[in-house]
Amino acid sequence: MSREVKITPSILNANFNDLAGEIRRIAEVSDLVHLDVMDNLFVPNFTFNFETASKIIRESILPVDAHLMVLDADRIAPQYAEDIAGTLKSIRREGARAGLAVKPGTEITDYEEFTDLVDMFLIMTVEPGFGGQSFMRDMLPKIERARRIIGSRPIWLQVDGGISEETIEIATAAGADTFVAGSAVFKAPDPARMITKLRALAESVPE
Question: How remote is the C-alpha of 35 from its chain's centroid?
C-alpha cells in the first residue's frame, strides 16, 4: 500500500513505575508513543496531570502523540478549544500537529468543515476512559467515511481502541494508517516484536 503505516503504542498499559524503560523497549520500532491524558471528568478515569504529562513528554525519546480526554480542553490544549477552529490553529501555532478525536457516538461528518485545519483525525474504536476494551467493529464505516473526507490530503487517520493482531488489518482496509495499540503491545512477551508484527500486518493490506 502507498500510505505510510504508523504505530503509536499507548503507555496506558505500560508500567508507570518505569515509563522511560518501557519506552526504550519499543523505541526502535515505534513511530510515536501515545499519551492518554484523562481528568476523571470528561471520562471516568484519571491518568496524568499536566505536570506529569509534561515530564513524560520532555523525557520521552520518541515523539509524543497526546490524546486529551479532558473537560477544559479550551485552556489545556494550547499548553500541551475558543471554538474548535481556534483550538486547532492554536496548537499548530505552537509547532505541534493538531488532531481531532471523535468518540463512537459522534459522527465524523459533523466535523468535516475542520478538515483543512487538522493533521490527524482520530476515530475512537472503543468508548474512551479505559484500556483493554474490545474493538468496536461498527466503527469501520466511520473510518471509511473519514478516509473519503480526507481524500488525497496528507492527513493521518488514526484508530484507537482494541487494535491487535486480529483487528489491525480490518482497520487498515477501512482506511486507517495510524494505530494506537496498548494492551496488544505492552502485555506481549516482546513488545517490540509485537509492534513489528502489527506493522507488517497493516502493510500487507492492499490499498
Answer: 8
Segments making up each domain of the chain, as ranges: 6-203
Cα separations in angstroms, 26 against 29, 83, 87, 185: 6, 36, 31, 9
Whole-number average pLDDT of the chain: 90
The grid cell for 20 is 522511560
pLDDT tens by residue, 48-67: 888 888 889 889 999 999 88
Q: Rounded to whole angstroms, how far apart are CA atoms 17 and 23?
A: 12
Task: Give the residue numbers annotated as catalytic, written as ranges.
Answer: 36, 160
Here the cell at position 37 is 491524558
Cβ-contact 137, 170 below 8 angstroms: yes
The dotted CATH code for 6-203 is: 3.20.20.70
